[in-house]
Amino acid sequence: MTEPTALPADPWLRDLSPQVVAHLQAMSVRRRLRDGELLYARGDAAEGLYGVVSGRIRLSVPTAGGREMLIVQFEPGSWFGEVSMFDGEPRPQDARAAGDSEILLLPRTRFLALLEQHPELYRGFTRLLCRKLRTALEYVEDALSLPLAARLGKRLLELAQVYGVERDEGRLIDLPLPQDDLANMLGATRQSVSKQLKAWEQRGWIALRYRHVAIRDSGALERAVARWSQGAAD
Q: Which of 3, 14, 26, 147 is least surrounded, with the fewest CB atoms within 10 Å of its CB?
């Protein structure tokens, strides 16, 4: 008999009893996706809640110009899809595998029934939703108030903090990061992002590698982001 896959360890699970966690694990459905395979499309009905076991899941929306606007990438340990699961509205983005991936699905009907039996689950979800809302509002504020250089530098520093691995060349962001993706995250053009990255590489702040960025001088980049955030010229 195949052993059930452990639930992705998002912090919202920490306050749950072992019995509830075991119940969640028993009701989950394992699904494997190939690189680039669609998990769900914008407008689809909500199946339930998803947790990333391995690989990555990209959420994106198409723009009027036919480009893809990357919203976020979910890494192993992350849960997503809770908004449509709760409100019953269609999915607002496309979700696609970035690399071969494995996810767990907690089916909506069974999960909502479990919530009625165990109201303590709502407490964890309240924190999960608030955390995501704070992050989304911060991104909106940055997009409205900060120049591209500040937004790009801030995002690289955040990624380095979460995914950074120390290497001889600096703190490597251990995450495939094509410049197209960076541009889509920031609502900018690839050319403008590439120009800024190359300028920073010439200053010795970062090192560019194929689909990767390493932070070589985080202090200099942090000070520059602070200046730009205050409206100072570069």
A: 3
Tokens of 39: 């998990």
Beta-bridge partners for 108: none
Spatial distance between the Cα atoms of 69 and 180, rounded to a whole number of angstroms = 10
Q: Where are the beta strands (DSSP E) in the chain?
A: 29-33, 38-40, 48-54, 57-62, 68-74, 79-80, 94-97, 101-107, 164-167, 170-173, 206-209, 212-215
Burial class (CB within 10 angstroms; exposed 0-12, middle 13-18, buried 19+) of 112: middle
pTM of the predicted model as reported, rounded to 2 decimal places = 0.72
Positions in the chain whose pLDDT score sits under 50: 1-2
Cβ–Cβ under 8 Å, residues 95 and 52 = no
Q: What is the pLDDT of residue 205?
A: 96
Residues 6+ apart with CB under 8 A from 34: 97, 100
Question: How does DSSP assign 14-63, residue by residue?
Answer: TTS-HHHHHHHHHH-EEEEE-TT-EEE-TTPPP-EEEEEEES-EEEEEE-
3-state class (DSSP) for residue 134: helix
Q: Quick one: pLDDT at residue 216? A: 95
- C-alpha span between 222 and 224 (Å, rounded): 5
Nearby residues of 91 by Cβ (< 8 Å), 6 or more positions away: 40, 41, 42, 43, 44, 45, 46, 81, 84
What pLDDT, on a 0 to 100 scale, did the predictor assign at position 14? Answer: 67
